Amino acid sequence: MRVALLTVLSSLALIGCGGNETNAPATPAALVERARVLRERDDHAGADEALTEALAAIPEADAGATVDDRALRAEALLERGITREQMDRLADAEADYTAALALDDTLSRAWNNRAAVRASAGRLEEALQDWDAALAADPADELALANRALGRQEAGDFAGALEDAAAWERLSAGTFGPAYRKGTILLAQGENAAAVEALTEATRRAAAAPTDDPASFAVAWRELATALRRVGKPRESAAAWAEAVARDPRMASSAEAIAAQFVSAAVDALGERGFAPAGQPAPEGFDLLVTREDGDAVPALLAEPAADGAFVLSLEQLDRLEAAPGAWIAVPQEDTSEGARVTLHRAGEALRRGPRPVRFLIPPDGPPALEPTAAPAPAPLPSPGED
Predict the structure, then answer these.
(1) Rounded to whole angstroms, how far apart are CA atoms 15 and 300?
(2) Which of 36, 127, 216, 369 lies most in the core, judged by the most C-beta atoms within 10 Å?
(3) What is the C-alpha separation between 134 and 201, in angstroms, rounded?
(4) What's the predicted TM-score (pTM) here?
(5) CATH number of the domain that residue 306 is part of
């Protein structure tokens, strides 16, 4: 999965960016400024051309370059790297960032951006070294702190990632980013209760933040839904998913969101059978844990509905259910005027009735009209990698 990282995309005030910027003197500095204007207007090819022209006009070290020339050249290389990164010319962007750093190794923006390019290419160890250099050059670089936190999280260095999130919070207290990153780190670490607390704070900050794009914060509710499910709070998880989908409807197509829509209905249907949420995390791969009064907790799995009362299980789900025949399978049906309806099947009974390996035709209101003919058990499917 490609790591989502932050690069510097130039938020500098633009001088002389009116309609006649093409008439500005064609000095190298003016060309760099014009390139920023063109990039803001999504004319990346024009920006690249202007920066290449500027670099050709700036003397190099062996041609009597001054200190100012070196600084302007480093700036132009950084800007062209940003432009080429936006054009998805990542190798060229990395080369420009490297050339800029050869001229000025205090450019934390160039370190950060090169790190992001390298991380996106799967070179996480090199990226982490670049983020170390960025923060050595500027310990208050919030982009580098945010990105190194994510990079350390991806590398499994949760303690280091939390340190970066805490440093980011000190620099930008009360903002969305640090709280969200802390929550995702704790979730990846398996500290689910602490993740719920951090992600709840992230959603509070997101709700208070002015934005023209609510979808930009939807991920906080998505991650909160996952954390809530893991701590045995299925209703709260479903509510968080509903908020995530309301903010970003594109999330509605994900399998997890579809399942979350029916968590509350599954809880209600199980409640009619005398079950209630156990208030504890479900076993890995199940959606919730339920129990009867003075009874043992039983896992429940939400299955994908199919036609004619059927439901579909993946091979992974099938393996889990075969190991837990006392589990319940909750199958969401079409919405009715009373809300979503869920039919329940005991895993052991369903697996005995249905044809293998992944599709089980279980009528929603009773046993099948025709029992399948007894037949020898099929040979087990080979595991991945077996001949």
Answers:
(1) 62
(2) 127
(3) 29
(4) 0.69
(5) 3.40.1350
